[in-house]
Amino acid sequence: MNEIIITTISKAEIQQLIESAVQKAIIQNASNNKTQTDTFLDVDQAAAFIGIAKATLYGKCSQKHIPYFKKGKKLYFDQQELIEWLKTGKRKTIDDIHAIANTYLGNQRV
Predict the structure, then answer these.
(1) 37 part of a folded domain
(2) How far apart are CA 75 and CA 69, in angstroms?
(3) What is the rounded CA–CA span in Å between residue 66 and residue 47?
(4) Dist CA 42 CA 58 (whole Å)
(5) What confidence tier does 9 reach under pLDDT thresholds 50, 70, 90?
(6) Rounded Cα distance, 82 and 62, in Å
(7) Is residue 1, in this structure, part of any structural domain at all?
C-alpha cells in the first residue's frame, strides 16, 4: 500500500525539484548515448542542463561568456564544454584559501 504524505512545499521548492529532476534525466540520457552527435545540445537542452533561462543563455552567448557553436541561425553547445565552463565558477573553500595563504607565507621567509 502507498504511503500518503502531506507537506507544505513552496512554489520555488517545487520548481527547484522539477529542474533538478530534468537535469538528472538529461545527464543520464547523455551518458547512455555516448556518440559524438549526442554530446551537442540545442538552446532548450543547454538551458535546462545548466539550469538557466533561455534568455539568460542567449545573453551569455552574446557577451561571449559561454562556449557555443553557431550553424546558420541556430546555436549548439558541447555538453562537455558546458561542464568545464560550470567548473570554472568554482569558489574556493576557507580551507583552500588558508592553504594557499600558508604556502605563500612559507615561501616568503627571509
Answers:
(1) yes
(2) 6
(3) 12
(4) 12
(5) confident
(6) 16
(7) no
Residue found by looking up cell 534525466 in the block: 25
Structural domain including 25 reads 12-107
* pLDDT reported for residue 51: 94
Residue 78 in domain: yes
Domain count, the chain: 1
68 touches 77 (CB < 8 A): yes
Mean pLDDT across the stretch 45-60? 95
Q: Which three cell numbers stand for residue 19?
A: 529542474
Residue 79 has pLDDT above 80, yes or no: yes
**In 9-33, which positions are buried (b, 16+ CB within 10 angstroms) versus exposed (e)?**
eeeeeeeeeeeeeeeeebeeebeee
Q: Is residue 27 part of a domain?
A: yes
Nearest CA to 68 out of 89, 47, 52, 96 is that of 47
Query: Can you give the pLDDT at residue 109?
Result: 60
**Residue 9 in contact with residue 15, Cβ under 8 Å?**
no
- pLDDT over 50 at 37, yes or no: no
Residue 82: count other Cβ atoms within 10 Å of its Cβ.
19
